[in-house]
Amino acid sequence: MNIPTLRQSISYWLLASLLGALLSGWFALREQQQRFSQDSSIAHRLLSQKTVQHEAVLATLAQLETPPPAQPLLAGLQPAMPQLLAIGYWQHDSWHGSSAAPAGIAAAYRQAASQHLAQTLPAGNGRYWLVDGSGWSLLIDARLLLAGSDWPPALARISLELPSGELALLARQPQPLPWGWPLALDKRLPAASQPFAFHSRRVLTPAEWPWTQWLALSLLLALLLGSIRSRLQVRAQRHLAQQQLRLANLNRLGTLGEMAAGIAHELNQPLTAILANVRAAERLLDDDDERDSVRQALQTSAAQARRAADIVGRLRAMVTQPGSGGSRALDPQPLLESLLVLRHDELAARRIALSWDNASPEARLQAEPVALEQILHNLVQNAVEALGSRGGHIRLRGEALGSRYWLTVSDDGPGIPPEQLPQLFQPFFTTREGGMGLGLSLSETLAHGMHGQLTAANLPAGGACFTLSLPLAEESR
Question: pTM score > 0.70 for this model?
Answer without folding.
Answer: no
